[in-house]
Amino acid sequence: MRSLRRFGFEAGGIVFSVVAFWIPFYFIIVNSGKDAKEAALLNLAWPSSTHFWANIKTVIVERNFMLLRAFYNSTVLTVASIAFLIVLCALAGYVLQRRSDRATPLFNFLILAGLIVPPAIVPTIWLLDGLGLFKTLIGLILVEVALGFPFAVLLYKAFMAALPREIDEAAVIDGCGGFGLFFRIILPLLQPVTATVVVLSSVSIFNDFTNPLYFLPGSKNVTVQLTLYNFQSMYTTQYNLLFTNILMITIPPLVLFLIFNKRIVAGMTAGSIKG
User: Membrane-spanning regions, if any (predicted)?
Assistant: First the structure.
C-alpha cells in the first residue's frame, strides 16, 4: 500500500510538471513556427508550414536590431549584479556567521525583513534620481543587488556554518589578514553555494521585467523582457513573432539552469543540512 501511494504521488508530480511546464513550452514552440494567421488561432496544432527561421530573422532585425541591444544590456546587468552579489553576500554571510554580539540579532532581523518587506517603487525612483542614477544601468544593478541580497546572504550564512573556525585560526597564525583570510581561504570553499547563487540569481535578473520597466526606461536601455512590447499593441498582436521572441529569450537561462541543475540542488541542500 505504501509503495502504491508513493507511486501515485510520483505519477501526480510528473503529470503536474507536464501540465504546468512542458505543455506551455510546447505551445510557445509550435506557435513560434507558424505564420501570423495560424498563430492567431492560439492552439497546439503543429504548423502546416514552418516559418521558424523567417520569424527569428524578423525578430532580430525589428526596430533596428533592438533584441541584440537588449541581450547586451541584460548580459551586462546580470553579470555585474552577480559579481556584486557574490562578493557582498559572501562577506556579509561570513561576518554574520562568525560574529556573535549584541548587534548580531538586529542584523539577522534586517536580513529577514529584506525578504518580507516589498520594494517601494516611487521612493526608490526618487532616491535614484537624487543620486543621478535613474535611467542608468548602474542604478538598476544596485536595485537588483539590493533585492537579491537577503536571500543570498542567508544561503552563504547557512553554508558557512559547515566551515570550522579552526580554518580561520590556522590562516591567522600563518599571517593572513582579514581580507586575505576571506578571499584566499574562505571564498574558494564556498563554490557549491556560489554556484547556487549564480544560477538562481542570474535567471531571476535576466528574466526580470518589472524593475527594468520602472527604473531603466528608454529604448536604448531596453532589456530582453521589454522587447515583448515590440509585437503587441492596443489593437493588434503578432503572435508568431511574439512567441518567437519569447522562445529566444527563454533558451539562454533554461540552458544555464539545466547545465547547473545538480550544483543548484547540492548547494542548497548542503546549506540547509549543515546550517
Answer: 7-29, 71-94, 106-128, 134-156, 185-206, 239-260
